[in-house]
Amino acid sequence: MAQLHGGIIDYARRLKAEGLKSKYLGQNFVFDERLAERITDDVVSTCMQCGTKSDRITNCLEATCNMLLVQCEACATTYADCCSPSCREIHQLPVEVQRAWRKGRSTRSTKTKAINDPEGLRKRIREEEELLALNGTLHPELTKLISKHQYGREISRPHQLARQAGCLSDTMPIYHSLGKIPHKRHTIFKNGKDRYFYEQLFGTIGFDGMSTLSYHTHRPTMVKALGKPKDLTPKIAVEKNMRSLRLHGFKTKPEKDHLAARKAILVNSDCAIVLAAPQAKSVDYFYKNADCDEMIFVHKGSGTLRTFLGNIDFKYGDYLMIPRGMMHDGVQDGDNRLFIVESHRPMYTPKRYRNWFGQLLEHSPFCERDIRRPKKLETHDEKGSFTIKVKKQNMLHELVYATHPFDVVGWDGYNYPYAFSIHDFEPITGRVHQPPPVHQTFETDAFVVCSFCPRLYDYHPQAIPAPYNHSNIDSDEVLYYVDGDFMSRNDIGPGHISLHPAGIPHGPHPGAMERSIGKKETNELAVMVDTFKPLMVTEEALKLDDGKYWKSWVE
């Protein structure tokens, strides 16, 4: 390569000044921190990781690698500015762990050789991603280093990468145990000399997620009869909605049976938002949702949720979190009003409130003390005919078992139902209005749940406590109004539900902003669900619609 008189920068400057045609296209590589100087707007190279057109030149940020490569912006995000998943995993460790890792290893200079086999690199990336999916880490030897430095500074790497390094749970793990269990799992456990207890793994995400080991008096597999399935698919009235709605939830018709009482009002492929007003104190069957985690918010009523892993008392203001596949006898005590979210995605506590071990951090608006776990374990040693209704793929299947499903003598693990009261949520406030994510209580990768609770208003002398107008460009917002005076709305009462669809702005009702100025606190109580896919409106929802909410902002 011949040296250019005056250098590449002077060459580009002369082209522009003299109107000359460039003999170079795109960027020219330079041996300094700039890495490249642009001569023309042409892009003549491709990303070495994905093959798309790109001329972004960079060095792998993992110091012991520092390989030179062409990397597009998308791959820079995916691989954290590294050349491969294995380098990414090292680079995103805490600084202390990286230093320990580099000890005794040579670090390449910035003038390192470039990757000369993009196809080989892409193959290696595919192989490493497959290994990550199987093992959770490409560097199992890191475990000791991470443990040694676990009391170092807070880890700020992305959640997914932390999990790949084998040191972050998907949720808030709290080990719990009830009843009698053997000293070692998967070993003989008997009741006396002749009778075995039967072990069952109750788990999620294959064998990789949260799980519990339960021990049953009888085999939990003895199905003796099948009933006729019933189709529960909601009837859609508006598939593509662009109208703000206000639904009067308390107009939902009460039903004796707790499953018949469930009325799906807003649905998409990720979740269903359901209202229910069950009246029966008990039913003659058991129920499990095999498709969805369930979040049941208790607006009215109190009682006991009975499950095969124990019982949880509930009352007004409780969130009942029921993992998919959890067998129970329904949420009922004779007079309930329930707001339910059925989620096809696992429901977790917000990851930003947890450390890399899964423990809730000091700035979290609630902590493990607020979580109420199952207490009393019912053990029924009974044979006969016991009906279990199982919801799967929007069908309600009926199975008759030969033994009582609540025959567990003991269990331990992490996968079980729990309760959390909205009254135990501690609001986060600030000098000026805080955005909705500070109220976040649960999350999935498809929607979030927030709790709006009584709190002090913003304390900047010029603060406007009411929320600012905002556009839901990529999420539908559902608000379930529980109690108090919701400060941003006019004419809202308990049990009302508002839907603000994605794509158009919404904000305080006329006069709400002005009323909020100078106020010191709010006593509102509400549950919000923001979905990342549009919600379809069911026929049940239209029965509750006031038909005029969409024009309530006109002055």
Q: Please give the radius of gyration in angstroms.
A: 29 Å
Discrete helix count: 9
Give the integer mean of the pLDDT values: 87
Strand segment tally: 35
Strand order of the largest sheet: 12-35-14-15-21-17-20-25
Q: Beta-sheet strand percentage?
A: 25-35%
Describe what you observe in this structure.
- By secondary structure, the protein is of the alpha+beta class.
- It contains nine helices and 35 strands.
- An eight-stranded antiparallel β-sheet has the order 12-35-14-15-21-17-20-25. Strands 13-31-30-34-27-26 form a six-stranded antiparallel β-sheet, with no helix packed on it. Strands 10, 11, 16, 22 and 23 form a five-stranded mixed β-sheet that branches.
- It is globular and about 95 Å long.
SSE layout and pairing:
Elements (H helix, E strand, L loop, with lengths): L6 H12 L8 E3 L6 E3 L18 E3 L8 E3 L2 H6 L6 H7 L3 H8 L15 H18 L6 H7 L10 H6 L11 E4 L10 E2 L3 E2 L1 E6 L7 E6 L6 E4 L3 E2 L4 E3 L6 E4 L14 E5 L3 E6 L9 E4 L3 E8 L2 E5 L2 E5 L3 E5 L14 E7 L39 E10 L2 E9 L4 E6 L4 E4 L18 E4 L3 E6 L2 E2 L13 E2 L4 E8 L12 E5 L4 E2 L5 H5 L4 E2 L2 E7 L4 E3 H4 L13
Parallel strand pairs: 16-22
Antiparallel strand pairs: 1-2, 3-4, 5-24, 6-7, 8-9, 9-24, 10-23, 11-23, 12-35, 13-31, 14-15, 14-35, 15-21, 17-20, 17-21, 18-19, 20-25, 22-23, 26-27, 27-34, 28-33, 29-32, 30-31, 30-34
Q: Care to give the gist of this entry?
A:
The chain is α+β, with helices and mostly antiparallel strands and 555 residues long.
List keywords for this structure.
single chain; 555 residues; alpha+beta; 6-stranded antiparallel β-sheet; 9 helices; 29% strand; globular
